[in-house]
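Follow-up to my earlier ticket, as requested here are the two runs.
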Amino acid sequence: MEPKKQEEPIPEPPKVNLAVIYYSSTGTNHQMAEWAVAGGKEAGAEVKLLKIPEWAPQSAIDSNPAWRAHMDATKDIPEVTLHDLEWADAIIFSVPTRFGNVPGQVKQFLDTTGGLWFHGKLANKVVSAMTSAQNAHGGQEQTIMQLYTTMHHWGAIVVPPGYTDPVIFGAGGNPYGTSVTVNQEGKMVEDVSGAVQHQAKRTVTVAQWVKNSKQ
């Protein structure tokens, strides 16, 4: 009687590389990015937390104690590079709204991605976005859609949260990406931590499907 052949173990699928990229002056979008990191890790991704470089003059930063304090508290978080974009299978952006659009710092960084775009290095990246504003109609949806316009030019795969989980309704019900209102004291009005983590997990799940299909 021949010995039973040992079945070879099925290899684990490769982990999704998730870059959580944020811009934040006083901390709201940094906190949202931290929640996205937690959700991404829970979904099994290899995660990098990265900040978009600040180019506002020091005098402007120093004129706002909350801005100065946040800059000092996050000085050790690495700044995003083009190499990070190439490394990532999935990207989550967390940025505030500025007049219904992304902040200039974010636009400046996105404008440096032309070389990667030209060589097809950004195609099929799985992307999602989040934002914040001082009032519910302060351009939250528009800011996310403006960011997604760039992602469409990349040839990226945009993954909005839609209404895929009840937690989204408790966070304000934004189907384009989690958004939060910030009051005059700088505190978040809605509880969005669960919605952010759901959005991150959903993004990683779709990125895993895409990555597995390429194997």
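Run two:
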Amino acid sequence: MSSPLTVPGRLRGLLGPRHPGHAMPLDDLGALTLPVGDDGVVIGDDSEGRPQMIGFHRPIPYEVLLIGGLWTAQVLALRAAGTGARVAVETGRAQAWTTLAQAAGAGLECMTLHGVGRVPPMGATVGSPVLVVRDCGMRPPRGRVVASPWQSVLTLLPYMSPVAPRLMRNSALVGIQRVSPGEAEQIGKILSLSAAEIEALPTLADGVTLWCAGADRQWVMTTGTDAESGLLGVARRID
């Protein structure tokens, strides 16, 4: 299975509209270069400064769990909206999302807020993908709207909770930010982390996340752009 974290450079996606062919001399082909990007959301940089991505738009159900801070979840939601996805936020603290939702679409409703258990069917399609962000506290109830083709679900947990082990086992991708030593031990057992990874989790700086997909591991530093920092402030683990 390929890692959900990818580096830009691969051409993927649907074929575009058909146009008449273009011709050029064979000797000129070496001078032709195309800026090709990946089809994911940039979540930050790895330890070598290479951008890392999550591909939220998939033809299969895709569950992501983030045990971390609201700031990181909001950056991911904002960047997903920037790729053209509709973002539905299920939350019990709408006041924490209102400013972001108003700014995300520049007047368009690309990010909508819903009470817990009140997300309507979103009608996700390949041309109109959806990201559902569940910010429902320590014990999020089972959602009526679940992951489906072209509709991914990102669940935010501020810390470990009784439902966290189930969510970790059911998620294709799990992100872990700074947690207590006891939580790190519990997470390490569930995700089969190394001793070094378990030891590092309680010491992580704000904005750093360990992303885990099966046996794949990737440390990522998320840094806000000027616009994101102006809207959300600087990276922080505690809200």
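The only thing I checked on run two: Confidence is low (pLDDT under 50) at residues 7-24, 28-38. Let me know what else you need.
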